[in-house]
Amino acid sequence: MASIELTNDIIILPDTPAIPGLSFRRFRGESDYPNIHGIINSCKEVDALQHTNTLEEVALNYTHLYNCDPYQDMLFAEINGEAVAYTRGWWNTNGDGEWLGFSLGWIKPGWRGLGIGRSLLDFIEQRLRQIAATHIEAGRFPASMPHFFTNEASEAEKAKTGLLEHAGYVPVRYAFSMVRPNLEDIPEAPMPPGLEVRPVLPEHYRLIWDAANEAFRDHWSYIPEPEEEFQKSLEDPNRDPSLWRVAWDGDQVAGMVLSFINAAENAEYNRKRGYTENICVRRPWRRRGLARSLIVQSLYAVKERGMTEAALGVDTQNTSGALHLYESVGFRPVSRFTIYNKPMELK
Known about the structure:
Layout: E1 10-11, E2 22-25, H1 33-42, H2 55-63, H3 70-73, E3 74-79, E4 82-93, E5 99-107, H4 116-137, E6 147-154, H5 158-166, E7 170-180, E8 196-197, H6 205-215, H7 227-235, E9 245-249, E10 252-257, H8 263-269, E11 273-275, E12 280-281, H9 290-304, E13 309-315, H10 322-328, E14 332-343
Parallel strand pairs: 5-6, 11-13
Antiparallel strand pairs: 1-2, 2-3, 3-4, 4-5, 6-14, 7-13, 7-14, 8-9, 9-10, 10-12
């Protein structure tokens, strides 16, 4: 059995499972990126995860974290020095006046069902409680503000769903991943009068970003995208503004669909898929058929790049009728995600 190198980042947790060689430690910086990448990729088959997560994308994500100190807000589980699981937490406040403590976690399939996941979840919940209490003590947020833990799982992530529900998390919202299985018979959808789609130039990036933040404010549990996300978007390897379809009314952004193609993902899953995402219309231009027109234009755009299918995600309870709109242009649900909340008891 390999020896465990004890360092000052080792964390002793109460009530951990009696697994030979098990230890917990903090994040160690860039040297942990391959561990994160490897753990996530090990889960793909059993959890039916159809996405590609490259090492470069892990690095990009951790370069632009916000409301999260990974050296305090992460924990790895190791068996004889090999990283087999990890969790990370962060926080935010939404438009409904709630403080939300987010967390994610991944466990290699061979180490599930042994209590490691519960130890990681207990740790991250306690860490989020500490952060929330610090905010209250500093007067940043009132103690009367509703506080929740929040997480999500796809219908295929049976182990994660069981862990969350056993820990007291309850479903509060559902989302679909949707696919249009071909790019034939795309319906007609003319632009509303007075609006036009123009080529996207670098000087438009900030305007488009701000317009999207404004448009999404009407969505459930709305959280504005911070500056870190904008900077991250500029470095996204899948970013391709030539695929974007942005509608203008004079110098005002009226709505948009910001499509992209993930070449690495297409290669891994032997498909030709384009994503028609970030679909939004600002309030003054709604109910005029603009979103439908921009989606149709985006389908043609990815088809012209050689794609044979399109995909997007949708909140199934979106009050704007997004689910019906997407179905009307040929998208069909292929998987469901559940958003879970759990009231946070501040001690």
